[in-house]
Give the backbone structure.
Amino acid sequence: MMKTPHEKIEFLEKLADGITSWIGSIPSLILHTLFFITAFLLPALGVIDFDKMLLVLTTVLSLEAIYLSILIQMSVNKSHEKIEDIQEDIEEISEDIEDIQEDIEEISEDLEEISEDLEEISEDIEDIQEDIEEINEEDDEEDHSERAKKAILKSDVNSNKNEIKSLKDKIAELQNMIDELKKE
């Protein structure tokens, strides 16, 4: 099965990474040391002329240096790309955090306004209740239908008080959640 150009490039990149990793290892150091010792022993043992050995050794080392510099530059480029990707991710996360903080501040301000409105409504309801009680005390002689209307109104006031208390509890709960988010 034939490899696509992308697969070939991926294979070559993995090969380059493997070679770069191996060159920076202890086995590579040992192999190079043995190679150099052998290269200098060959002329000493009379197997090859010293000048020819130096020419071959210099050529091999020059080629190795060229390939190593290319492989190392490939690794540096790949690392640089990864660092740029990470920096972009960090910038996006920072922007998201700033947006969340602004939202939390807005919600906190809204909750404060709602809390103030609820306090005003609660005060108004208390005033209305006092007025109803005063009217009840003054008009004990009113007929039953009027008393029923007042009882219904009083019931509505109590119901509204309960709803306001429930809303205040919800606001307190939301305020706690906002405080926890601010801490994070």
